[in-house]
Every structure is written in C-alpha cells, then in structure tokens.
Amino acid sequence: MPRPSSLTRRELIALAGVGAGILILGEGVLASEAMSGPASLARAGSSESCDSTEAGVSENPKAAASERSPEGAAASPEEVADSAAKASMSLEDLPWNLRLVNKDHPLDEDFPLPDLEEIIDGYAVDVRIRDDLAALLKAARKAGHDPVVCSAFRSHDRQRELYRARVSQSKDEGKRGQEAKDDAAFWVAPPYASEHEAGLAVDLVDGDYQQLDERQEETATQKWLMKHCAKYGFILRYPTDKSAITGIGYEPWHYRYVGKEAAFAIAESGLCFEEWIEKYLDQGNA
Ligand SMILES: [Zn+2]
C-alpha cells in the first residue's frame, strides 16, 4: 500500500527551519491581507483567507524532494478495492490521494511534510498533484476564465495562526470558551486538521471576484471549475448541503485532490468525501 514519503530526521530539521521562515513571512502577509482587502477573516461566515505564506516555501520548494515517494500516481478506486478485498482496510491504509484529513482525523504530528512544488506565485502543493492542478488551471484559462490561486500548502504554524485569528473573531462576536473554538473550527480548521497542511488542497477564486464567500459560486470561473474539476482529479470538498457531515461551512473555492477516478466516482455519487470514504471502506471490508 503506498505510503507518504518518509523524511530523514535531518530533512525534518531542515524543513523546520523553512517553517520558521514561513512564520515570519506569515506575519507580514497577515498585515498585507488586512490592507489588501475586506479581510476575509472578518466576514461573517467566511472561512479561510487568501494567504501567501507559501512564499516561504517557494524559496526551497523541493527541500524534501530527495526522498520523493516512488508512488507518484494516484491509486484508483479499483486498485484500492482489489487490495481491500484481500484485507480489512482502515483509514490509515488508504493511499495518499484518498487520505482523510479533518477535525476527527487530523494529521499525526510526525506526519511527514509533503514534497512540495511551486504551482504559481510562490504557492506550492504536493508534487504529486502539481501537474493535474496546472492542467486544470490551464484548461480553465483556455475556456476564457481567470482562476487565481488564493491558498495552497500551509505550514502547521500558519494554520494555527489562521485558526487563532478566527477564534478571536468568534470571541469578538460574543462567543466564549469552547463555543468560540467550535464556532471558529466550522470556518477554519485547527492546526493538523486542514488538507492544506497535507499539500492536497488549493483555494481557487475568480480573478474578478477574489472574496471567500458564498457569492464565489456565482462566478463564471467557479461554475466552470465545479463542472470540470473531476476531470483533473479534484473535488469541491465542502459542498453547501454537507456541512453537518464535513463539519466545515460551504466553501465554493476549496478543491481537494483525490485522483481522477475517485473524483469522478465521488461526483457521481453525490456524496461528500467523508460519506464516500465510509461507504468505500465498508464495501472494501465486505
Ligand atoms: Zn481551502
């Protein structure tokens, strides 16, 4: 079963150094976010903010590339089902492209940082999804749209920073203690619980409307992306009618890579990723 690439201790230490750089850059970015727009975090209901902490990564996007996983291709559902038929399968056994990351299933603290490769303007993603993402963006542009990468890989520190900022907003809105944390977590995943930290998610907005709110779904770019993303291995991860299951509010801009076959299967099923994975594992274990 494919496993995420493992890093040596030395590489982890080196990457920790990169992370420190991200944190410093992140503070500068926060300042620019506040200046550059109606600070997405301040909007009621809005979740993530466009960020460019990835700029810190871009200085050395291939820092961990020396021990890149040989299993570059996304495992298809059929391949996994075949394996599943041979042995009981659990979430931990799923291939990298089907890895479930949410509040109930956060990344382990020792989960290796993904091998990153820049996609555009200092934004990096897991190298295994880069080409499909580039193809998606290219196809959207060819169709006359203007997709803008608004967020990609985030360090744990950056995720923590965004989460804490959202908790502060919830407190400003009168919520207290756990209530404030729960409210914040509906919009911004706590550290280790975001797919952005795994390098498997990207936030895409319309160049003419770069706001992270529900109106994003009305843009021509977003309509095109929702219709065509599966062809490139992506799913709209937090659909409007699935918040009770995903635990995350509607995000018509957050796309998660799962591989092409799984993306088609999920789109066809009408299920959200949590539901589909559960059904998929049940079938595999049957
Ligand atoms: Zn996102």
Question: Would you kindly provide a brief summary of this structure?
Answer:
This protein has ten helices and six strands.
Structure characteristics:
single chain, 286 residues, alpha+beta, Muramoyl-pentapeptide Carboxypeptidase, domain 2, four-stranded antiparallel β-sheet, two-stranded antiparallel sheet, 10 helices, disordered N terminus, binds zinc ion, D-alanyl-D-alanine carboxypeptidase-like core domain-containing protein
Structural overview:
The chain is an alpha+beta fold and 286 residues long. It has one domain: Muramoyl-pentapeptide Carboxypeptidase, domain 2 (2-Layer Sandwich), CATH 3.30.1380.10. The chain has helices at residues 9-36, 54-58, 77-86, 127-142, 156-172, 177-185, 220-228, 243-246, 260-269, 273-285; strands at 116-120, 123-126, 147-151, 201-206, 234-236, 254-257. Strands 3-4-6-5 form a four-stranded antiparallel beta sheet. The protein has a two-stranded antiparallel sheet with strand order 1-2. Helix 3 (77-86) crosses helix 10 and helix 5 (156-172) crosses helix 6. It is globular and about 45 Å long. It starts with 8 loop residues before the first helix and ends with a helix. The structure holds zinc ion. Zinc ion binds at residues 48, 151, 196, 201, 203, 254.
